[in-house]
Model the fold of this input.
Amino acid sequence: MALLLCALVASGGCHLAVGISSCRHGEACPANERCDAELGVCRLNGNDPRFDHELDDDGNPDDDKERAPATLCGDGVAEGREHCDDGNRLSGDGCSSTCRVDDLVSEVEPNDYPNDSGSLTISTSSVFSAGINTLYYNEASGESFSEYDTFWLAPVEPVVVRVETFNREDADDCDGVTGFIVDMHREDVAQVWDEAFLRGSHDNGNGRCTVLTTTMAARPHLIRIREDTGTSFIPSYRAQITVLDDRGVETEPNDTIERAEHAAVDGLDATMLGAIGFAEDVDLYVVDVPPGRGLRAEVVPNAEATTCDAFNTRIALLDESGVEVLATASALNACAFVDGTGEVPRHEAAANTSLADRRLTVAVTKGSAGLAGTLPYRVAFTVR
Ligand SMILES: [Ca+2]
Ligand SMILES: [Ca+2]
Ligand SMILES: [Ca+2]
Ligand SMILES: [Ca+2]
Done:
């Protein structure tokens, strides 16, 4: 919050703490400092190691790993891999919270079932804006059920897609009171509802938001969203549908902080391909998290029909000195993930509440039960 309030100061830079001033909106920095446009803060003149070619300490320049500087989505300047930057971190207004172009689609009822006229086909970079406003009461069971909202996603080539629900109007965030279940079905769902089920997700985002991140084949898929308790009224919500870009393939060795992968360092809706070859293999990935932002990192199975509980992986979050501060394992409706996004992050350790940029490292390993053979996977990163 301090950053936002300070950014309103018109000139002279906004002093935040010893040695750190905000210049996000073009304010001048003190004489011996320059404005770091990506982070929106003043920094002492001189070399900034973040922009250097990344060197490890083995004396061999050939295996040093390239990295790009982090960008800051929401500073009003489209740079690096940002498709757009409208100066805010909202989605549904044409430019998403991670600086992707939004295509806004509003629901049309009826859209509860796949053959309903309002069950629209939407593109794989959209914000689906809808309302859950009906609770059905079933006399026989004595329970109420929320209505469904369905839409079709039909990529023209295989993609990795994140479908994320938000119930706050002013931010990509959730109120922590109500939540969602997001299910994905094959295209023959209208004929064989149960058999056509591919994957579901529940309560694995910030607040009680839900995130379904999946590999998707080039064919139609039905996405079904509903309130997760059958008792809560949700007047409106948004489902953000985003294609994630592959930045590269991990290359061994990458099991130490010094050798961690840097290809997805900006964390802007990026994926990395990896493989865990043996039980002790650990793959490390570095992401820069600017001040006031949070990281979501999650494991993505390499096939759409692979459920998270069958995909036995573990994600750990390491601090800058390599100490593990948090870890999660795969569960039935949530693949291994850490989430520091939102105003009240699920995992505070994945949020950067400091006034300086912070480097977080994610470690992917097999889960405790182990799996025989090589386990191919993707890891997806989102910083916002
Ligand atoms: Ca920007
Ligand atoms: Ca926006
Ligand atoms: Ca509906
Ligand atoms: Ca590996």
Observations:
- Residues 71-73, 75, 77-79, 82, 85 surround calcium ion (ligand 1) (CB under 6 Å).
- Residues 2-7 form the longest helix (6 residues).
- The chain is about 0% helix and 35% strand.
